[in-house]
Amino acid sequence: MSSTVFLGNLPVWVTADDIKSWLTAENLVADSVKVIRNPETQESKGFAFVEAPNEEEMTSIIRRFDRAPLEDRILRANQAQPPRPKGAPRPMGPGVGPGAGPASAAAPPVGDAQLRRTRGGRKHRKPGGGPTSAFAEELAKAL
Q1: DSSP of 59-100, one letter per residue?
Q2: Does 96 have pLDDT greater than 60?
Q3: Which CATH class for the 4-79 domain?
Q4: Which residues lie closer than 8 Å to 41 by C-beta, 6 or more apart?
Q5: What's the CA gap between 83 and 117, in Å, rounded?
Q6: Are strands 32-37 and 44-51 parallel, antiparallel or unpaired?
Q7: pLDDT confidence of residue 87
Q8: Where are the domains of the chain?
Q9: 141 SS3 class
Q10: pLDDT-based confidence at 128, cuts 50/70/90?
Q11: How many Cα neighbours within 13 Å face the side chain of 28?
Q12: pTM of the predicted model as reported, rounded to 2 decimal places
């Protein structure tokens, strides 16, 4: 099991040295700290990974920094998830997407006609369901 902590909602000015000094001030130990930066601008993306030496230290870091206030922010700290392979779809959060929650299991599948009715309603559509813009009309003619 990984002993890496995800530390999020950081201000852009936070550096790895800042995080190391916070850990030292709290008598917490980290093997490494990596602040994730935009490769083009080198500005922080607002999150970091802290590699703890063991599970106990990881739990202590999470307890100390999760929901800790910093400036006008509330930090987030939790166990880091393993990296996804490139091109893999992002997992959906709880209560989002197909198969989420008990209500979606009981709900019938939505057909195309139902889907069209829920997006924009009839008052926004032309009679006959034709193209809605001059560009769309020209594209329909070309195809």
Answers
A1: HHHHHHHTT-EETTEE-EEEEPPPPPPTTPPPPPPTT-STT-
A2: no
A3: alpha beta
A4: none
A5: 39
A6: antiparallel
A7: 82
A8: 4-79
A9: helix
A10: low
A11: 26
A12: 0.60
